[in-house]
């Protein structure tokens, strides 16, 4: 049976693509197990390296650390390695709306109700050719200054909007503001 490789914190950080401070933080919050040997000669194992790689993989999928901690707490070292080798990692297939409801404590739809987002659904609408007309001033005369509007959605959440904005975009934003306020009220 081969012996497991051991690493100093700097070596582990380099191999995993993180900083030593990140490793210490993950250990302090329980995301990573404590090192095998403490003190000036602290050593980390291949198990730590694989868990760090899995954490990074899940972060690239935009999962928050709390969800990552829940996911990997159930896995032993073999399961972590298998997940990395197979590149099969549990990832929620829900929408941004479901995510907002989840973090605000609102109700989530059942998995069968969740809509899958496909590249076709995300595709931008086709642009219509500009209609000629005297409505727009020459580009040299446009005001290039911008201002930001802060729109409170709840007591602890606000949306920042940059102006100027096209009328059609403003209508979309107003719809999102109403939707956001409704979602956040459901969570209270």
Question: Could you walk me through the main structural features you see in this protein, from its secondary elements to its overall organization?
Answer:
There is one protein chain. It is built from eight helices and four strands. The longest helix is centred in the C-terminal third of the chain and has 20 residues, at 167-186. By secondary structure, it is mainly α. It starts with 5 loop residues before the first strand and ends with a helix. The radius of gyration is 24 Å and the shape is elongated.
Determine the fraction of residues in helical runs and give it as a percent range. 40-55%
| Gyration radius over CA | 24 Å
User: How do the strands of the widest beta sheet line up side by side?
Assistant: 1-2
Cα end-to-end separation: 55 Å
Structural class computed from helices and strand pairing: mainly alpha
Largest sheet report: 2 strands, antiparallel
Number of strands: 4
Number of helices: 8
Q: Which word captures the global form?
A: elongated
Provide the low-confidence segments as ranges.
88-93, 111-129, 136-143
Secondary-structure blueprint:
Elements: E1 6-7, H1 9-16, H2 20-28, E2 44-45, H3 46-60, H4 65-73, H5 77-86, H6 96-104, H7 119-122, E3 147-152, E4 158-163, H8 167-186
């Amino acid at each position: 049976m081969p012996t497991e490789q051991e690493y100093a914190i700097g070596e582990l950080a380099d191999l995993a693509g993180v900083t030593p401070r990140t490793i210490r933080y993950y250990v302090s919050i329980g995301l990573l197990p404590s090192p095998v040997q403490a003190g000036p000669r602290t050593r980390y194992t291949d198990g730590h390296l694989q868990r760090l790689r899995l954490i990074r993989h899940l972060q690239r999928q935009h999962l928050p650390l709390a969800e990552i901690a829940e996911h990997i707490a159930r896995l032993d070292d073999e399961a972590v390695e298998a997940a990395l080798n197979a590149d099969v990692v549990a990832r929620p297939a829900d929408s941004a709306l479901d995510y907002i409801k989840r973090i605000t404590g609102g109700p989530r739809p059942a998995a069968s109700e969740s809509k899958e987002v496909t590249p076709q659904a995300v595709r931008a609408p086709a642009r219509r050719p500009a209609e000629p007309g005297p409505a727009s001033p020459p580009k040299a005369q446009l005001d290039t200054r911008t201002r930001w509007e802060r729109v409170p959605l709840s007591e602890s959440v606000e949306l920042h909007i940059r102006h100027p904005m096209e009328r059609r975009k403003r209508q979309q934003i107003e719809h999102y503001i109403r939707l956001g306020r409704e979602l956040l009220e459901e969570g209270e």
